[in-house]
């Protein structure tokens, strides 16, 4: 199911001059060739919509049925064609173009970080809520390099709250990797992971987060540093969000188990 919003589609329709049933300057043949070369889809084979529809309606049907990855690729290439082929561009045209680029970047960014929803507040902490909002805002605007220091801040806060929750003693000056090293030891001591593989993966997080300390201090906006490139920044954000999602699931199971145990221990109501 596409995440491409109807209101955002209307802006693309205006830029691509789709009101009369056309899309830019494509003929039926070049429109088919464009889709085959871009996303390996024959737009006229009936799989998207009735092939008797206009090019504009075929593109609308594609936006409705395709996945976000396919849509962002097609939109990006159409935007390139518009820039290259439009000789006279008014200020309003350029403003609309910039808006469409931003919309497509947002769609692409949210697609790349699959577990962005793993970033969640704990104990209704407003400071964490603010950090999470900043991270999501930068991802939506295709600026993952600006999320790295905020994500590091989130992890330190998250690690402390995990330790607080389980009565794990730590110092206020403990580093990110130390906090999760303490959490990993607690998991190991209480034999809460069934698989040796899972235990090793959690253990490797300690070294991973030690490396993240370096990235935060030397390749993020935390200090006047040269910023890490977008591709690697997005990869780091996506990987860390996946790690957090796994830890969240562990914590959810522990909470459910504790709740069940408490209910079983409650005296009978009569």
Helical run tally: 10
Number of individual domains: 2
Strand content: under 5%
Low-confidence stretches: none
**Helical amount among residues, as a percent range?**
55-70%
Secondary-structure element order, N to C: HHHHHHHHHH
Coarse structural class: mainly alpha
Annotation, overall tally of beta strands: 0
CA-CA gap between termini: 51 Å
Morphology: elongated
Largest sheet features: none
Q: Which radius of gyration do the C-alpha atoms yield?
A: 24 Å
Oligomerization status of the protein chains: single chain
Average pLDDT confidence is 88
Structure description:
- The termini are far apart.
- The model has no long low-confidence stretch (mean pLDDT 88).
- Helix 6 (126-140) runs antiparallel to helix 7.
- This protein has 2 domains: 6-112, no CATH class; 117-262.
- The protein is built from 10 helices and no strands.
- With 270 residues, it is mainly α.
Question: Can you tag this structure with a few keywords?
Answer:
2 domains, 66% helix, elongated, single chain, mainly alpha, 270 residues
Summed up:
This protein has ten helices and no strands.
What is the fold's blueprint, element by element?
Layout: H1 6-15, H2 28-39, H3 55-65, H4 68-85, H5 91-112, H6 126-140, H7 148-165, H8 176-189, H9 196-218, H10 230-265
Helix pairs in contact: 1-5, 4-5, 6-7, 7-8, 8-9
């Amino acid at each position: 199911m596409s995440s491409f919003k109807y209101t955002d589609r209307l802006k693309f329709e205006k830029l691509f001059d789709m009101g009369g049933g056309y899309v830019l300057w494509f003929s039926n043949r070049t429109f088919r060739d464009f889709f085959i070369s871009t996303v390996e889809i024959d737009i006229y084979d009936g799989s998207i919509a009735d092939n008797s529809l206009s090019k504009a309606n075929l593109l609308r049907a594609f936006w409705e049925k395709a996945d976000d990855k396919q849509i962002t690729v097609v939109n990006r290439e159409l935007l390139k064609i518009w820039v290259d082929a439009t000789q006279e561009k008014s200020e309003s045209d350029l403003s609309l173009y910039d808006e469409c680029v931003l919309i497509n970047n947002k769609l692409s960014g949210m697609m790349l970080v699959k577990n962005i929803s793993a970033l969640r507040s704990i104990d209704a902490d407003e400071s964490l809520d603010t950090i999470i909002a900043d991270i999501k805002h930068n991802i939506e605007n295709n600026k993952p390099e600006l999320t790295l220091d905020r994500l590091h801040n989130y992890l330190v806060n998250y690690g402390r709250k995990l330790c607080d929750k389980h009565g794990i003693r730590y110092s206020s000056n403990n580093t990110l990797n130390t906090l999760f090293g303490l959490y990993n030891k607690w998991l190991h001591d209480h034999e809460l992971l069934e698989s040796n593989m899972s235990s090793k993966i959690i253990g490797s997080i300690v070294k991973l987060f030690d490396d993240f300390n370096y990235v935060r201090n030397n390749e993020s906006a935390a200090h006047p540093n040269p910023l890490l490139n977008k591709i690697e920044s997005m990869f780091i954000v996506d990987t860390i969000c996946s790690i957090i999602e796994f830890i969240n699931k562990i914590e959810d199971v522990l909470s459910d188990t504790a709740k069940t145990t408490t209910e079983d221990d409650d005296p009978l109501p009569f």
